[in-house]
Amino acid sequence: MSVKQRYKFKPDYAIPPGLTVKETIEALDMTQKEFAIRTGLTVQSLIRIFKGEQPISYETAERFEMVTGVAARFWNNLEMQYQEQMVKIAEKERFKNDLEWLKLIPVNELISRGVIPANKEPEEKLRNMLKFYGVNSVDAWNKIWEYPDVAARRSQCFETRPGPASAWIRLGELQVQKHDCASYDKNKFTEVLRQIRKLTTEPTGDFEEKLIKLCAEAGVALALVKEMKKVPWNGAAKWLSADKAMILLSLRGKSEDKFWFSFFHEAGHLLHDSKKDLFINDGTKGDLREQRADEFAAEILVPKHFNPLIEMAKSKTDIIQLAEKIGVSPGIIAGRYQHLTRKWRWFHDLIRKFEWA
Asked: What does pTM read for this prediction?
């Protein structure tokens, strides 16, 4: 049995409401001159309304109701529908010149994640992408993402892949729009980080809600967004306003030591770097700001004076006892051991894995 597929009719033309006015005049057996006299309009105005060159105003619609008996609401709705269709036609024409931009953006991945609807029409796909970014045009997108009007230094990986980078960051922005945050307080955030450090010892999956809540109390919105294909970044830090910052994390690597190091790395950017800067942590080591953030994360998780003790560990029991003494999870100590000794297989089973729900 064949299934009939139904398509929504989308005309690529607009019918001026003035044509309905003209048909109504003819149905009433009036001449245009007589109708003009009855409505108090000029014949020239009527002709412009017939052609769609002059809109039917609310006042004119009331006059039409008085003369024709057809409700003013009807004429107002006709005019509104006509103007909306004219805008859509103009927009579609404008979009034709911007379709190349879609090649920069991971459209199919965003569709597969259910972020934007699947649509075969290129212009409609472009429209959905612009709505996702909260902009009206590709030119506006360029001014915010590609060549920002507000001067800001950005990580090199953003400059090389602005499409995927902007999509990933935008997913974070949309996620944290739902978060109620206090105004950012640097001292409060520093205090909160000490409490967050203790969350590393909690069972996998139990800390997420607490982590988000603690960050929000200090004016930092935390977003957890799966990394984009071919651009597997660890995390990002961005100021959304003078009083609200965002930390964006993926589960790249899926291990607890990498996750927590990424979190504190981004926290270091918020505490020590400019509010105008946008950072994406892709493992780049050449930037002094990235090195400083690495040092901050390493020191707050496991102070470096513990490194000699960690290097001397001989068994899982040693790692677990050190973790208890230092106050973090055994997986973080195991990760530090691997980093210090380059013995990447040792104590690997102590490092818990995080998975996307």
From this structure: 0.77
